[in-house]
């Protein structure tokens, strides 16, 4: 221990005590007293030591004096501070007087422990550097080399005030040149462009850790970076935070959260500081070169910051410990990366599994929704089917009731002398009975039979296609046959055909339809045309004796029609009153009893709208059918000339046709070849025309459904093509086609390419339309009648009686001078006021 005594200028001797850090306990006190004595001797012996001291201290003598007075307040250098001597107290007291205080712990500067051992830097007093041992802690006094203490100190100072970027300077300071802290602040102010003396000069200096440098020793403690403020108030946390973020932007993202408050403990400060600052500090302490704060942060530093500064901050063996710590951290990082990769793989598998489950769930949902939709669709169709069947049954029942009402009303009208109905030869009771019988025979399907009906429908449609193909083949064969024959006869009509086995119902089909046939036969009060009268074969000369044959008025497939007259009547009026149809028997080869059937039927028919057969003569090769002569020609020619007719005229013709068919059907006779060529137009004396039905070559007396495919393609009914058996309704279908043609001039079913398959498809599917503009000015009631006639289902198709009751066909009985549309409207109101409107739907509705 060395005791220095110096004499103050005032004459009062003051003893400066320099305490060398030595051993512990009482030894220390003894050493100190012994040291003082020794120093006193040395002072007396060597007065130059004071001069050396004063020279070395370079003007710090005054401080030494004051410090001597304070010596009792704090322990001497090298002593262990107790809790009573907190670092702040010690630091404040020492530093207040310009004595640098540095706390050391385990060989490193420490500012965190209040009870640590403190070593006063005695360099200013030139105390020798020694190692001391206090208590249980190893105190290693690391003396700052003189060279470091005396060399210029490069300091960077940033002014905190003002807008960013803040003013930043670098000063070269010499510790020995700085005498007071105020001098230091003044020098820094001038360097920052501020006045040393005026307001706004630098008042406070902070390290990057937020510690305020309040003395010269604080300033020269090793920090290279300071923040200068002019405020009287301490630097706030936010200001420091923002300033640090500005100075070290690369640390902003790495640091993560906000930097801690400088007012918090130094531990927290250290942990929160950016690694650059930390590294700078460490390196400066260890004497390495100082790294600039703005230097990019290395990955190693980031690891350090990220994983534990504490591990690095306390290496016992310096660099080696740091390297080991870094290796550990690298291992930790690699391990974490492996774990991360493993976790990522697991997450990937989980995501894939979830995605797969989602896809499967979507597929399952879609499948279920499809199944549900199908089930819904099926049930909806079944429900609609049931509703439709129920509605039809209900309608039919209602129809029966209405028909009864109509019958009663008709009877009353009949009683009043309704001549029109009587002329038709229809008893209303008979009509009602027939309708009731038909309804009973046709009868709507019961709900329990729906499934059976469905199966039957399915099978029927399957076989329908085959039969349609076969029938089409037959149509084609027939066309070729007719074409060849017409070519021979130089005739253009090739539309009619007859099959060899016509009207012969297959035995199986007869059995299958037996019940229905019975009911059908029983339901009608038929007046069957009886057997053919046997005719004697006469010579051609006799024919010529009886009749004078004139010019040809028409050609058919099997016959030629000429006008004729009885020879004994020629002398009376000279007119050709008759028409004679000459049938060449040779042409009938293969067609059986067509002639016999036609003659048989026509000979029995007596109706104003049916061409009357007067006499039949037959030679060996020919047959002569003498008929009434219908002078107006056939409807085909009329259509060809007029293109189309007025609605009134067309309605009249349709009505005539329906009356003829009503008559025929009432006798269970199906014409089966209704077409304009077979409808003759009689010119009446009053200028009106009466339509007469001719050509009964395909007519047949029905006793049940027939399956013969015959007719003319344009007019053939769909049930003929399906070959499931048909009846009288085929004539009504043809009536609908003719009505359509009368109103627009062209048929409803037509193939532009003259493809018979296409035509038959259209017929079977009922594909027709009221083409614009040809039908734009046609009344809806006319369209409605056609729609009721061109119905695929024969049971829902208008009968001849219903067609006659339709308002459109009834118009022709009214005054000719009235507007047809107005009349139709009146008739509609009368007609559809009854239940028939519910049955058939609104006027103009689609089929
Ligand atoms: N009674 C008649 N009065 C006036 N013209 C008639 C009469 N009968 C037939 N015709 C005319 O003769 C043409 C052919 O007559 P019809 O149709 O009976 O012969 P077809 O050989 O049986 O014909 P299809 O090939 O249709 O069987 C008719 O289109 C018609 O123009």
From TrEMBL:
One term of GO molecular function: ATP binding
UniProt feature, compositional bias: Basic and acidic residues: 26-44, 439-507
BP terms from Gene Ontology: intracellular signal transduction
Ranges where the Doublecortin domain occurs: 154-232
Record-linked PROSITE patterns: DC (PS50309), PROTEIN_KINASE_ATP (PS00107), PROTEIN_KINASE_DOM (PS50011), PROTEIN_KINASE_ST (PS00108)
Pfam family, one: Pkinase
Main enzyme class: transferase
ATP-binding in keyword set: yes
Span of domain Protein kinase: 547-809
Reaction(s) catalysed (UniProt annotation): L-threonyl-[protein] + ATP = O-phospho-L-threonyl-[protein] + ADP + H(+); L-seryl-[protein] + ATP = O-phospho-L-seryl-[protein] + ADP + H(+)
Region (Disordered): 1-57, 439-532
Keywords, ordered alphabetically: ATP-binding, Nucleotide-binding
Comp. bias regions, Polar residues: 45-57
Biased composition (Basic residues): 1-10
Species this protein is from: Eptatretus burgeri (Inshore hagfish)
Protein name in the entry: non-specific serine/threonine protein kinase
Keyword Zinc: no
The protein's Enzyme Commission number: 2.7.11.1
Annotated family: Belongs to the protein kinase superfamily. CAMK Ser/Thr protein kinase family. CaMK subfamily.
SMART domains assigned to the protein according to its UniProt record, in alphabetical order: DCX, S_TKc
Positions contributing to ATP binding: 581
